[in-house]
Structures are given as C-alpha cells and as structure tokens.
Amino acid sequence: MLKLAYKLLVNDRTKFTALLIGITFAVFLMVEMLSMFAGILTRSSATVLNVGAKVWVMDPAIQTVQSSIGMPDYVLDAVRSIDGVKYAVPLYSGTALVKLSDGTYQAVSVIGLDDTSLFGRPPLLQGRIEDIYGENAFIVVADAEISKLGRPRIGTEFQVNDHRGVITGIAGVTSGGLFGIPTLYTTYTRALQYLPNPRFTISYVLVEPKSMVDVPQIKRQVAALGYLALTKDEFVARISDFYKYQTGVGTNILIMTIMSFIVGLSVSGQTFYTFVLEHLERFGALKAIGAKSRNLVLMILFQAGFTALTGYGLGVGLCALLITAAKLRLPSYAAMITYTNLAVAFVMVVVIAAVSSYLGVRRVLRIEPFEIFRS
C-alpha cells in the first residue's frame, strides 16, 4: 500500500513539485528568520562568551554587556573578601574613536584586562600575550570587522584619544560583535589612561568561585552590597531577554516566522487537498476492492509525511547554502543555524503535514465506492 501511495504521489509531478516548493519555501523562511535571531542573540553576548568568566558582578541596572555602568573600587575589594571567591579581577569595557594612519577615524570597542592576571584574554593567532605589557600595546580581534581598521598587522600604529597605539597581537574569539565595530584588548591601567572615563571606572568584576556550590552565597553577599552577581549563562539570558522583549527584534522575527508558517500551511494544505480530489477515483477503487479505511488513512499520512520531510530537508539545505554564501561575501552576517532552530522548524513542518493529512483523510473517508463506479 505504501509503495502504491508513493507511486500515486510522485507520478503526478506537477502537484508533487508544487507541494515540495511550498514546504521548501516555508521551511527556508522559518529557518532563515530563526537563524538570524539566533545569530543576533549570540553576537549581542559576544563579550560575555569571549571573556568566559563564571560569575559577573555589575550594577543592577545593566541590561546588555555594552551598557556598562561604572562601579567604585571598594566593590572589587568587597567581592574579593567574600567566602567562596577564589579570585576576582576588574574588567574595563568601553568605546573609543581611533585615528588610522590614513587619517580616517573608526569607532572601536576597548576591553581592558586585569594587569596582573590578564583574565579573560583571547587566544592569540599572532604575537605573544606578554607583549601587551609593552608601551602603547593593543591586541586586535580578527573578526569580521577587522577590515575597518585597514586590516592591521603586528606593528601597525594608530592614535587613541591623542595617544599612540601599536598592534602587538592578533586574536581569535568565539563570537564576533553585533554592532559592527572592531574590538581592541589592552590592560586595565592603559584603558583608564588612554580613554576619558567617569568617576567610577570598573565596568564589571569577574569572579572565579572556588566551586559552583559557592555561587548562591556569592550572589547573596553581592546583593547586600547593592550590586548584582550573575553566572555567565544568566548574564547571556538577561541580554537575550532584553533583545527579545524590550526591542523590536524579537517581535519582528516572530511575526516573519509566523507568516512563513501560514504561507507553508495554506499552500501545502490546498495543494495536497487538490491532489487528493484528483485521485479520489483511485482511492474509491481501492476501497471497492477491499482496502480498509485504515489502509487509506495510512496512504494519506505517508504521502503527506514524505512530502513534508523531503521539503524540510530541501528547505534546511537551501538555507544553509545561502547563509554560507552570504558569510563568504559578508563576514559580518550574523545568521547561524542551531539545533533549536531546526527543532522548531521541524515541529512546524509536522503541523503542516498533519493539517494537510487531515484535510485529505476527511475527504477520502467520506467517499463511497458505488459513487465512483456510477460516475
């Protein structure tokens, strides 16, 4: 029966192609929208992921890692004195305007690492990490935005706030930034010397707990100081929630995804129902020669499921191909396919297949064999 259902499906090439195109296009749009959203959320937390600290201490008003609010120096000393803290170091996070050798200006993100430990330093692709202690030393991140600095090499010079800067290393990171500006790393002290700062200069305190069991206690004592302590995952979730619910990004992506689902559902449902109507005589003949209703239902489910899964595979493949091509031409393109995206799209495809099957099954179960032969 399944072999017969397969032949009925693929022999009508026009309807089969229309079904595949409808589902493929719907899956492509759904996965593309979800992948864009996943890429935006990942890049919005790039600093948190790249630094890799287990616990972050910050002002409670902070929503994203870029909107840092300075803390007084006593917070660092107080955190270091908490039981369960193995060590704690300051982190500077800010922006600056860099003057390149050709006279152009470029905004950059500057990360100042603790002078003693360099905790949170990125892995170097070129150069030595010890050179960051040299005069005017900076490390540039080799992400999609590095070309905006004129593709600097070790020894490239620039100016930051009328101070001379020299590239002493080129680093690779887990995730590039979201806002389209290059990233420079230097020491905490140099960042304070080179950049204009408010009265309080510690953007974050990075904490290494003795064990994860001590984290709740650290959070309570930091809260008693009037500040907020979050684990890396909690900070990433806080940033993601900001972009999901307090900006238009999440709403717009959700609307586009729902529209893609509705398009796929309407096109596939209508086309599959038309397919069943055109083959109604064959289903009636099968029923007349003894095929039971469950056999006919199984045939319909097989046809809808086979088409949906094939369209799902084609849609995901097309999306992956276009994202790869886009990143080759536009390195800053943020979309990324995740297992969650694939699972959500798969569930939506299953719903499309279920609705399409339901429409076909209802029509097939109502046919009477004598009506087919009488006509």
The helicity comes to 40-55%
State the end-to-end distance. 25 Å
Q: Are there runs of 5+ residues with pLDDT below 50, and where? A: none
Roughly how many Å is the radius of gyration?
29 Å
Order of helical and strand elements: HHHEHEEEEEEEHEHEHHHHHH
The coarse overall form would be elongated
The main pleated sheet reads as:
6 strands, mixed, barrel
Question: What's the number of extended β-strand segments?
Answer: 10
Order of strands across the biggest sheet?
A: 2-3-8-5-7-6
Q: Find the structural class using helix and strand composition.
A: alpha+beta
Secondary structure tally, helices? 12
Question: How would you summarize what this structure contains?
Answer:
With 375 residues, the chain is α+β, with helices and mostly antiparallel strands. It has 12 helices and 10 strands.
Your description of this structure?
This protein has 375 residues and is α+β, with helices and mostly antiparallel strands. It has 12 helices and 10 strands. It has a 6-stranded mixed beta barrel. Helix 2 (13-44) packs antiparallel against helix 11. The radius of gyration is 29 Å and the shape is elongated. The chain starts with a helix and ends with a helix.
